[in-house]
Description:
Layout: H1 3-21, H2 24-40, H3 76-99, H4 103-120
Helix pairs in contact: 1-2, 1-3, 2-3, 2-4, 3-4
Amino acid sequence: xxxxxxxxxxxxxxxxxxxxxxxxxxxxxxxxxxxxxxxxxxxxxxxxxxxxxxxxxxxxxxxxxxxxxxxxxxxxxxxxxxxxxxxxxxxxxxxxxxxxxxxxxxxxxxxxxxxxxxxxxx
Length: 122
């Protein structure tokens, strides 16, 4: 099992725990990080794909699974970079909230960043 899988599993395991504890801040941080990892595995869509002109709907693919492609697999380094990016985004946004005098929102984002940092080195 790779570290990328371990990281995702740690985040999912932690999510179960914080859901039970009803820790909204931790739930938001963990769900967001898991979604960011899922999004990073998405395969880019080729925009230059020629549309098929036959059949009842132009450009439609026919057959079950005709449009399915395997998701890409993140390396351990890529998965770590995705979650670290989530941490940085929260820290930058928290600084901006402080600048705007919204200390409560800033503190919530810093707490979310702390939740994610706690799972990076585990």
